[in-house]
Structure formats: structure tokens, C-alpha cells
Amino acid sequence: MSIVPGIIRRAHAMAHRAGIVRDPFRRVGNRLDRLLAEDIPAMFDRSNVPGMSVAVRFDAGPLIERSFGVASIHSGDPLTPRTSFLVLSLSKAVTAMTALLLAQRGAFSLDTPVLSLAADYAIPPERLGGVDPSLITVRRILSHTSGLNRTRFDWRADPTPIPALDILHAADSSPEPLAITGHFGRGPVYSSGSFLLLQHAMERITARPFASLAEELVLRPLNMADSTFDPRAAPSVALAHHDAASQRQRLWPTCEASGGLISTPRDLTRFFVALLPTPRSPHPELSPASASLMTSPAAADPDRGSCSLGLFLHRRRSDTEFFHAAFKEGWWSWAEGLLRRRVAFAVCTNADSGKELVRKTSMLIRQTILDSALEIRPISAPNAHANSV
Questions:
Q1: Beta-carbon count within 10 A of 200 CB
Q2: What is the pLDDT of residue 48?
Q3: CA distance 149 to 327
Q4: What tens digit of pLDDT does each residue of 219-234 get?
Q5: Closest CA relative to residue 337, chosen from 55, 2, 43
């Protein structure tokens, strides 16, 4: 294997430190512009995907975005950067920030037992597997270490949100009720059901619908103008497809906190940039310590790497990648941030067939960013993230 690329990268880094390279954002931005104007459109044309949107955002530099294809094969409406997608499990990151901001306001602590906040709902002892319910905390839910199962929820055609307590009661009589699965204390086990329980707890203690709460605490402060948890408030949403020739029925997830976010790559990158260790936080209230909890390991998963609060983590070439994927029922999306390089990107598609296109597009964007020297801009100590709240 040639050592030349590594030598070139180190030379770029040294030049940037010495002030010889004065605008690394422009340099990598130009590379990404070419990628999104040439390689990725050609790749999209060869795919079997009706539409894709991409955005890359630097904490101090350009926003680069492109949209390809159509929002619906029936209408032929072209995708634009403001066309939103159902981003499913990426919702959990926004739910985590909502919970952290409530904790900052003193509504609860991260180590508060969730069932004490949701006192009008109880998991029967026979479904707890001998686990003390006081150990099912907010922190454990956000890091997928509560031991609670995934619990699948039905989709709905009616866009009207359903109260979380009603969904919990309905799940109790389903084949897969909310329960401890025996994995408690043995590392993260991905759980959508636990986020439903947390949603109900937050709704109960604030007397607010979750969609309204997330709007006030996260979406509005971050200027995520095309994002919502309420389908009735979404201005322009793409349609889900099987592939470029077959459109799906319009359906919405039942549980908002685990999978109901409607958003755009532009807005998702706003969210991810808010977690970067930057001197000028885009969120007026989120503390550096809380942001750090979403980009620092809370639990280790031997198969998927580390898990933070609401996101997954991976080490890539001396950087920390914090990310989440989203896929089901006609949607494939990916969003990530790179901590040292202080950049985020998101890719969204509206088809079951989008998996490979999302994977290849993300890989090309990531590789272009990792080949840059953006990580050389240090953060001064007073603005660095704290290790804990």
C-alpha cells in the first residue's frame, strides 16, 4: 500500500498549522461541490431510486446541498432542498436532545427512574425479568441499556398523533409488549419501545404533546424550519416508494419519539453541527456538557461500536464519527458528524431501494472530508465539552 496519500495529508495539515493554507473550508468545499456535481449524480442516475437529497455543513464554512430526482413518481414533482423526508430512527437523536434540555431545566435528572415520571403506567413484574424498575432510568433509555425490548408498532394512515399512553396500553395486549428481555446490564440493545416510554414520561411531566415539546426545545431554536414531529404541520413531504417504478401508500409511524421526525438533510446537518465543540453554539440553551453526552461513549456494543445518548459512535482516522441510520417502509437515510473536523452531512432517499445509494454517497462524502486537514483548528479550553453533566 502506498504511503504517499498519508504523506500528502500530513503535509496539508502542517501547511494549515503554519498558516500557509488559509481557507481549508473552501478547498474541501470545492472538492465536495465537484463530487455532488459529477460523481454522485452519475451514481444516482444508475440507481433504482426516485429521489435523493444531500447536505454538508461546516461549523464555520459553506453549506453544500443538492437534490436529485422526484418527490413522487406519480406527480413528477422534483425534489428540492426543502422537500422533507420521514427520517425514522434519526428521531431518537432529537428525542435525546429534548430530554437533555428538560434535564437542564430541572424537570428530572438523567438518572431518574422513567417509571416514576410515568406513574400512570406500569410494566407488570412478570415482564421485568427480576430487574428493579428504579434502574430503568432516562440515561439507560437514551443509551439503549435499559434492557427493554424493541417493541414494534403499527403504522397509521391518519396523520393525527396518538398519545403515547394509548400506544403503551395497546402494546400491552400485542404479541410483543414492553418488557425487559434479559439483556439488562450487558451492553446496549437497540430499543424503540423504551423511547415510547420516555415520550410518555416527558408528555406527562410537562403536560405537553411530544411534537410541541420538541418544536419548542430543539427544532425552533436550531432553525429547523422544515422539520416536525406532527405530519399535519409538514409543508412538503416526499412520498415513500419501493423503487423508481413503484410508489407506496402514505403511512406514518405510531411512536413519534422513536421514529416520527420529518426533516430535510439541510435541517439534519443543523442539528448535528449543534453537537460540535464550537465556540459559538447554534443552540442558545444546550450546554457543552449536554452536547458532549451525545458525542461521548455511554456504552459499548461489540457489533456496532460505542453508543452515546441518542447516537452511535465510531473512530475513523483520528476522528470521532457520531451518527444514526434510518430505514424502513420506503425510506433510507443517514446523518453523521465528525467531531474534530467539525462538519456534518446527511443523505436522505425515498425508497426501499435507497440503501446502496445512501451507503456509497455517504462513503464518498466522508472520504473527501477525512482527506482534508480541517481537524487542525483547536478549540480553546473554556469552550471544550465537559465529560459529564
A1: 24
A2: 96
A3: 19
A4: 999 999 999 999 999 8
A5: 55
Q: Which residues 6+ apart lie within 8 Å of 160 measured at CB?
A: 232
Structural domain range at position 296: 4-383
How many CA atoms lie less than 13 Å away from 291 in the CB half-sphere?
Answer: 25
Does residue 388 sit within a domain?
Answer: no
- Assign residue 332 the CATH number of its domain: 3.40.710.10
Number of domains in the chain: 1
pLDDT tens digits along 69-109: 999 999 999 999 999 999 999 999 999 999 999 999 999 99
Query: For residues 210 and 254, what is the distance between their CA atoms, to the nearest angstrom?
Result: 13
Write out the H or E segment, with its range, that includes residue 117: helix 114-117
Residue 320: partners with Cβ closer than 8 Å, 6 or more residues away: 295, 313, 314, 338, 339, 340
In this predicted structure, what is the pLDDT of residue 111?
97
* Cβ-Cβ contacts under 8 Å for 137 (sequence gap 6 or more): 110, 111, 112, 113, 114, 146
- Cα atoms found within 13 Å of the Cα of residue 327, Cβ hemisphere only: 16
Position 389 in a domain: no
Q: Is 54:365 a contact under the CB 8 Å cutoff?
A: yes
For the chain, the C-alpha Rg in angstroms (whole number) is 21
Burial 55-90 (b: 16+ CB within 10 A, else e): bbbbbebeebbbbbbbbbbeeeeebebebbbbbbbb
- What does the pLDDT look like over 367-379, one tens digit per residue? 999 987 554 443 3
Q: Residue 211 in 3-state DSSP?
A: helix
pLDDT at 336: 98
Q: What is the pLDDT of residues 12-48, one digit of tens each?
A: 445 444 443 445 677 888 899 999 999 999 999 999 9
306, containing H or E segment = strand 305-307
